[in-house]
Design a protein that fits this description.
The complex is a heterodimer of chains A (199) and B (109). With 199 residues, chain A is mainly alpha-helical. Chain A has seven helices and no strands. Classes of the chains: A mainly alpha (199), B mainly alpha (109).
Chain lengths: 199, 109
């Protein structure tokens, strides 16, 4: 075992441990702000795994998009909706959790069995290594050109949809009198519209 | 055990890590009561799928690396999903003043 392989092994073990333990923390911690920061750690460790797989471009995209955008978006959402509320107690909560944990453990056992028993066609063709970024560019502009364009349209639609969904309908002028509406009053009059249906 | 360790950053090892991450995500998706945590669990599951794609791309499809292109597309779709999901969450919070998943029964018959 050379030094390079040993280093790779140690990096892999540390990154996998961070991924699994961090994901458990994201799911299990009661404070959701800690969960969000741990989620950033998990995303970064996954980017490290991509680097171990010789995929520097995707690792960079992972850090930019997930850590830089999605995680920050989640933190902003937490800040906007973080209200301490007493959750209504659910009957059989522990049983429910145990049953779902059993189902997930079964799924894990199934996946592990598939991974271990399948005869993968290894070793595959020689890896391109550092050329990966150039190869991704070739793919994106030749055989994956249509999905690339569709993805850009999807991002535009998601942006417009997010704006429309999160917009607060505030009228600048009163509809009846035409006078300038009192914005402070509108801000105060945020009556929960659908609360009367809640039981 | 040492034989397994010697081959370790292997395809199977990456797939096992991804499987664990996916199962943790599924458990969190089912059991979270905070809607933001549900979105976080979905991101975990998407990341598990991405690890799978990258591992296959590196070990099985080393010269064409189509898995990496797919991973880039998955990241794109995940970003769009996070934006729309959090916007829906915000408008839902504005209408019901809660993020408890058990209270979101508007579409129930």
């Amino acid at each position: 075992m050379t030094i390079a392989t040993t280093t790779e092994l140690i990096c892999f073990l540390v990154l996998s441990a961070v991924v699994v333990v961090g994901a458990l923390g994201v799911v299990l911690l009661s404070n959701i702000v800690y969960s969000a920061f741990l989620l950033g750690g998990v995303f970064t460790a996954v980017a490290g795994l991509y680097l171990l797989l010789n995929a520097s471009f995707v690792a960079m995209a992972q850090i930019l998009v997930y850590v830089g955008a999605v995680n920050v978006l989640i933190l902003f959402a937490i800040m906007l909706v973080n209200k301490q509320e007493d959750l209504k107690a659910i009957t059989n909560l522990t049983t429910r959790r145990m049953v779902s944990a059993g189902v997930c453990a079964g799924l894990l056992a199934l996946l592990v069995r598939v991974v271990v028993t399948t005869p993968w066609s290894l070793p595959g063709p020689a890896a391109v290594g550092e050329e990966a970024t150039a190869r991704i560019g070739e793919h994106l502009f030749t055989d994956y050109l249509l999905p690339f364009e569709v993805a850009s349209v999807l991002l535009l639609m998601a942006m417009i949809g997010a704006i429309v969904l999160a917009r607060r309908d505030v009228l600048a002028t009163d509809v009846v009198t035409g006078q300038v509406a009192d914005q402070a009053l509108i801000e105060k009059a945020r009556t929960p519209l659908l609360m009367n249906r809640a039981d | 055990m040492s034989d397994f360790l010697a081959t370790l950053p292997s395809l199977q090892a990456y797939l096992l890590v991804a499987a664990m991450l996916f199962c943790i995500g599924v458990w969190g998706l089912i059991n979270s009561r905070n809607a933001v945590r549900v979105l976080m669990s979905i991101e975990l599951m998407l990341n598990a799928v991405n690890i799978n794609l990258m591992a296959f791309s590196s070990f099985v499809d080393g010269d064409l690396i189509r898995g990496q292109v797919f991973a880039v597309f998955v990241i794109t779709v995940a970003a769009a999903e996070a934006a729309v999901g959090l916007a829906i969450l915000l408008s839902l919070y504005r209408n019901r003043v809660t993020v408890d998943m058990e209270q979101f029964n508007l579409l129930r018959w």
